[in-house]
Amino acid sequence: MTTTPPPRPRLRPTAAPARRGRPPTGSSTLSRDAIVLAAVEVIDAEGVEAVSLRSVARRLGVDAKALYNHIESKDSLLDAIAGEVLSRMVVPALTGDLSIDLMAIAQAFRVAALSSHRGAATLVLSRPVESLANLAPLEVTLAAFMGAGAEPEWAVHAVRTTLAYMTGTLLREASAGLTLGADDPEIAGPREAALVETGLPHVARVAPYLSRLDHAREFDFGIKILIDAFVAQLERASLDTRER
Amino acid sequence: MTTTPPPRPRLRPTAAPARRGRPPTGSSTLSRDAIVLAAVEVIDAEGVEAVSLRSVARRLGVDAKALYNHIESKDSLLDAIAGEVLSRMVVPALTGDLSIDLMAIAQAFRVAALSSHRGAATLVLSRPVESLANLAPLEVTLAAFMGAGAEPEWAVHAVRTTLAYMTGTLLREASAGLTLGADDPEIAGPREAALVETGLPHVARVAPYLSRLDHAREFDFGIKILIDAFVAQLERASLDTRER
DNA sequence: ACCTGAACACCGTTCAAGT
DNA sequence: ACCTGAACACCGTTCAAGT
Lengths: 244, 244
What we know:
The structure is a homodimer. Chain A is about 60% helix and about 0% strand. Chain A contains eleven helices and no strands. The longest helix of chain A has 29 residues. The N and C termini of chain A lie far apart (about 85 Å).
């Protein structure tokens, strides 16, 4: 079904030699930022696994190797994409109520990680942050904990625990994680039956719930457990010191 | 530097044609299990990213395409590897004490996920379990919760929360996750200084702790928070029903 | 300073041809 | 039933040659 266009008539016999070097026509739009943005576009359009130097370059109308003038490697490009997506997180202003503030931060993180194509989330969640850029979310989370009287060391543990939970939950939500439940009732039905068939008594008993999964509610369940536990522990600590 | 070997004298003019088909010599050791095991060997020796159909086949002394007689695709091979690693988890016997049992299950999961090359962990943690095999860990965890009086639906939420936390923590530990801390003091030192330099007040204040990371202790901190919260919530629920 | 051609050493996968 | 050759459409990356 692919029709070859008719050959254009060559008016000038002086055929141009195979062109090399930077084409003079191009209004050199190539830059590190433009590359990262183009990569995000590829993710939005075709998913993470479609990201290649060639696919990104194609979107920029340039050869893949040209990217090496602005990035160090594909891996560093992936890091940059993760940073870009994370930088879009809207860090909420603190109210002074730890419960409310932690919940707001968690929701903002979830929105940022899952915004744009879900595939981008796996990048954000599975690569180490080593650039010290984008520390705003961390700073505000620490501020929330320490404003509520947390010791520095304890605050770091609490932040890491929260981040680990969110990473695990969102990775599951981005359709790449340990899970048995399904969003789609078309899938959940047969799966429930299969779980009952396993013969494992407890698995069979919880099959109706295990076969179904509401990502938003599941995220809330765990984050509430953690927040309540943090608040309770801080209250206990402040009571201890006041008693003396 | 590549020396071509001298051509062997051909005694028989009936030169064998380019051999095709299954070589009669091979004691056909190829099987799905053998392939999965060879893949795990590749991971242990060279890391996850070294796993390719060609590298696995090489270890088996066979052509890469031969694998397609036993596996459906590379992706299904990765699923099988994850299943194999998970199947090595030693599921602990329950004591009846929810705190103790949950902690034992969590530690066993951590050991299984991190056993062999760390790269295998990312496979186990980042692929959905869809084969209904290997449900033993899930069954025993549900048994622990429900033995302590948990409602089926709540037990499912609790299991998912715990698994999400462990996934996030272990992914960080398998050197692929959101983290700023380092195991190595050689790295932690300069990183602490860099964190202080950021100018972010709370980040700077917690820099000594944020720059350091003891994976085992960190895992324990979060899992204890969760377990205590679960136990407290179950106690409250049982008090509520008894009061009536 | 920045882009391309040629080249290299890889990938996963299909399919017909062999035993 | 199971393995290989040939082939295809991809990869990331280096480096010299061009502008």
